[in-house]
Write a structure and sequence with these properties.
It holds the Pfam family Epimerase. Pathway: Amino-acid degradation; L-threonine degradation via oxydo-reductase pathway; glycine from L-threonine: step 1/2. One of its GO terms (biological process) is L-threonine catabolic process. This protein is α/β, with parallel strands linked by helices and 373 residues long. The protein has a domain at 23-43 and 52-226 and 267-295 and 333-349: 3-Layer(aba) Sandwich (Rossmann fold). The chain is built from 14 helices and 13 strands. It has helices at 3-16, 25-33, 68-79, 94-99, 110-119, 133-138, 140-160, 194-213, 239-249, 268-280, 300-308, 322-330, 338-344, 352-372; strands at 58-61, 84-88, 102-104, 124-127, 164-166, 169-170, 216-222, 224-226, 252-255, 263-267, 290-292, 296-298, 315-318. Strands 1, 2, 3, 4, 5, 6, 7 and 11 form an eight-stranded parallel sheet that branches. Helix 7 (140-160) runs parallel beside helix 8 and helix 9 (239-249) runs parallel beside helix 11. The structure holds 1,4-dihydronicotinamide adenine dinucleotide and 2-amino-3-ketobutyric acid (AKB). 1,4-dihydronicotinamide adenine dinucleotide is lined by residues 61-62, 64-68, 88-90, 105-108, 128-130, 132, 146, 150, 168, 170, 222, 224-225, 232-233, 235, 237.
């Protein structure tokens, strides 16, 4: 019988043995090391120790999307350029390529992931690869593969190599039967998108691996994230980024959600800081492993009104995208993040007025520079 099958059988028997319980992390990790994907000589990886005084060695997957480059910049400032590796399946821009380590990594390729983790002695893994809500509905098989199968690879790699793992979840992990105003951390979660289903799966699997195998899993449910220097990857909250670019470029914006669609939102700097803070939080401060975080909540009409305070001639019109509207109508309107605030001191810096000023100033100055060149 091939070795892998023998080991799998042994692992199954160990799990079935009465009294095994496999309740301690040590036994559990050994169980994971019986995974058919694990070569036996890898057993020593578990003894690679990561001293808390060392800088972590971080790998960011899906790092060329809206959030990854900004996170790499923040983490590199804190831990040093060479300690933070960005990865993706896309080709980086010249600027990103020269700003710090970049590596090709397809999260569906388990061996490739393992090689990167081993060769670079990775200790923290930030798992950003995903298909977001709207693009996920347009390609369910791909979303299922990347968001679910890919996550399984990440969980196994993290458990096998004793990594601290961050996986973001989203307001999209809730659905029409969840309380929407406000939405607490613990409540019914029956999302109606493949994106939401995959994120609930990620939350549950991460927490399961934490309790079962001692995996240091940490998860934040992000609201819609708004950034000036990176483009969103195909979500329901994308309008709240596009509106600023169009306001500066043409003074007009056609919104694909209804004027009164209220959704929780956050400026990117708050989101990235929260991510660093939860990763650095002492484990004994975390009463949970998945937290809501929030900053503000607004409708397209309220956002347009705030923009008009600075661009009085700004006009907004509406042309609904039925898919995105149905998704938004099932998502939280306000997010209750009291547990994050109480447990590890989460506090946002940007409310709506600061967000609008920051976005318009940034995009305005970029566009003035572009016009001058
Ligand atoms: N941007 C937002 O408003 C929010 C984002 N999040 C979560 O944060 C994370 C990052 O979000 P964004 O940067 O906005 O996403 P994005 O859609 O902009 O970027 C995702 C990246 O994943 C990469 N990717 C796709 N398939 C891959 C594969 N097989 N292997 C490796 N990489 C692959 C893509 O090339 C892309 O660069 C995601 O998990 C998302 O669900 C959660 C809530 C809100
Ligand atoms: C809120 C999210 O998760 C994302 N921006 C989306 O709209 O899909």
């Amino acid at each position: 019988m091939p070795l892998a099958r023998v080991l799998t059988k042994a692992a199954k028997q160990a799990l079935l043995t009465p009294g095994c319980g496999c309740q301690t992390a040590a036994i559990a990790v050994r169980t994971i090391s019986f995974s058919p994907r694990q070569v036996t000589s890898d057993a020593s990886f578990h003894s690679v120790s990561f001293s808390e005084t060392d800088h972590p060695k971080v790998l960011i997957t899906g790092g060329l999307g809206q959030l990854g480059v900004g996170l790499a910049k923040l983490l590199r400032k804190r831990f040093g350029n060479s300690n933070v590796i960005l990865s993706d399946i896309r080709k980086p821009s010249t600027q990103v390529f020269h700003s710090g380590p970049f590596i090709y990594s397809d999260i569906l390729d388990y061996k490739n992931l393992r090689e990167i983790v081993v060769n670079n002695r990775i200790t923290w893994l930030v798992h950003y690869s995903a298909l977001l809500s709207a693009v996920g509905e347009a390609n369910v098989p791909l979303a299922r593969a990347v968001n679910i199968t890919g996550l399984h690879n990440i969980l196994d790699i993290a458990a096998e190599h004793g990594l601290r793992l961050f996986v973001p979840s989203t307001i999209g992990a809730f659905g029409p039967t969840s309380p929407r105003n406000p939405t607490p951390d613990l409540c019914i979660q029956r999302p109606r998108t493949i994106y939401g289903v995959s994120k609930v799966h990620a939350e549950l699997m991460g927490e399961y691996y934490h309790h079962r195998y001692g995996l240091d899993f940490r998860c934040l449910r992000y609201p819609g994230i708004i950034s000036a220097d990176s483009q969103p990857g195909g979500g329901t909250t994308d309008y709240a980024v596009a509106i600023f670019h169009d306001a500066i470029k043409s003074g007009k914006f056609e919104c694909n959600l209804k004027p009164d669609t209220r959704l929780p939102m956050m400026y990117i700097d708050d989101c990235l800081r929260a991510t660093l803070e939860i990763m650095e939080a002492p484990a004994d401060q975390l009463s949970m492993r998945t937290y809501n975080i929030n900053a503000m909540s607004f409708t397209p009409e309220e956002l347009a009104t705030e923009i008009r305070k600075q661009l009085p001639d700004f006009e907004i019109s509406y042309n609904l995208d039925q898919v995105r509207q149905a998704i938004a109508d099932s998502w939280p309107m306000n997010f209750d993040d009291n547990n994050a605030r109480n447990d590890w001191g989460w506090k946002h810096d940007y409310d709506l007025p600061e967000l609008v000023t920051t976005m318009l100033n940034y995009i305005g100055s970029e566009s003035r520079i572009a016009r001058a060149n």
